[in-house]
Description:
By secondary structure, the protein is α+β, with helices and mostly antiparallel strands. It has helices at 50-66, 108-117, 120-127, 136-146, 148-153, 160-169, 176-179, 194-199, 222-228, 242-249, 304-314, 322-331, 371-394, 414-424, 436-448, 455-462, 473-505, and strands at 2-9, 13-20, 25-32, 47-48, 73-81, 86-89, 99-100, 156-159, 173-175, 185-186, 191-192, 209-211, 216-219, 235-241, 258-262, 265-272, 285-288, 295-302, 341-343, 361-363, 403-408, 427-430, 467-469. A hairpin with a 4-residue loop joins β2 and β3 (25-32). The N and C termini lie far apart (53 Å).
Amino acid sequence: xxxxxxxxxxxxxxxxxxxxxxxxxxxxxxxxxxxxxxxxxxxxxxxxxxxxxxxxxxxxxxxxxxxxxxxxxxxxxxxxxxxxxxxxxxxxxxxxxxxxxxxxxxxxxxxxxxxxxxxxxxxxxxxxxxxxxxxxxxxxxxxxxxxxxxxxxxxxxxxxxxxxxxxxxxxxxxxxxxxxxxxxxxxxxxxxxxxxxxxxxxxxxxxxxxxxxxxxxxxxxxxxxxxxxxxxxxxxxxxxxxxxxxxxxxxxxxxxxxxxxxxxxxxxxxxxxxxxxxxxxxxxxxxxxxxxxxxxxxxxxxxxxxxxxxxxxxxxxxxxxxxxxxxxxxxxxxxxxxxxxxxxxxxxxxxxxxxxxxxxxxxxxxxxxxxxxxxxxxxxxxxxxxxxxxxxxxxxxxxxxxxxxxxxxxxxxxxxxxxxxxxxxxxxxxxxxxxxxxxxxxxxxxxxxxxxxxxxxxxxxxxxxxxxxxxxxxxxxxxxxxxxxxxxxxxxxxxxxxxxxxxxxxx
Length: 507
């Protein structure tokens, strides 16, 4: 039995899942990944320790390989991960600094500096990306301005997925979807933008070679085999950015389908046949697909981490069914949460209004508001944000969206999925895929190993339909009123005070 491994580098955990060719999981392992505060003078600053990442990867590979059934043979593996966080390595492959986390606000000055040099419109026309404070070029700029001795030694800057691929295979490359996250790659040609690199005075040699997802990088290095129990026959295949890889598993290619992936980040992803999209004021961006000769339009926001915050602060200790408990409370109160409204900006605003210093808020607190309302308002606020993103992406389209495919851990949350259907006014389908992100990586591994002919054949092999949620149109009318007349007014109203708070507590 041929098997494929997808290694998923997530913001809360690192996991390895081994699948058969039909997408059925046969083995898996997972371990937590924690950020580290790296500067006492700046308590909000944080990094991912590269040793923590690599040791976690070796652990999940080793644990999952041990569970492979006797008749199974692992043929290939591919890595997927969150996009912008990377690190510099010297010419001998030695790590020079830890990975600055997307949670970390230290690059706000470089982000704001860049917009005085290159306008958001010019950035979009050149790279398909809008300025986002977490894009990799701002990390490189910060390093160049604050740790110039490190940049002088740096041979390459590898993103987290690329770093793990290097440790597995010895190759220093990036794929088109991950390279997009630097905000310095021309989408149509998949080449680095001399205009961006020159204007920002960045060292061009540290950008790794953009390469097609599904390309074989080589076999696993002998040292890694000794530490993980791999045989050495397994191929390492180039994967891609996590939510684009999940879109592959969900069958989001060049059609009219739109995917909503729900994890630490929530992403709306729509397949495109061209990366040359006219500029609009609606804040979405264009990114290369992991599927050949395709692109995606994408909107993004931090989402799941705020639900984790809710669980940590409102869940009861040692409650094995904490999510069921919280959602039952949320369901016990009314749509609109008696006026309590949540602005889900714990990590700023990316889409459709770019505002790195926007902060989260619960407003409308009054004597009717209960604990249940605060819980429900959190779900509603996250979903209002989802609607805001969707409207920005589809503003110039004549097609009326009827269905969204939802993937990710939140799809197990029945209340949240129904809230999505009600607030968005569309049917929400949840494909029956086991962990879409590592599954998509495993599909790319199978393409590289010639076990699938192409992306279309891979999707046909693994895709299965699942549950669907129809909108309650009475609730939709209520939510539309609250969304337009309350929610959409909050960010602008709080802009100045949030900047004051940000400057005092988060820089």
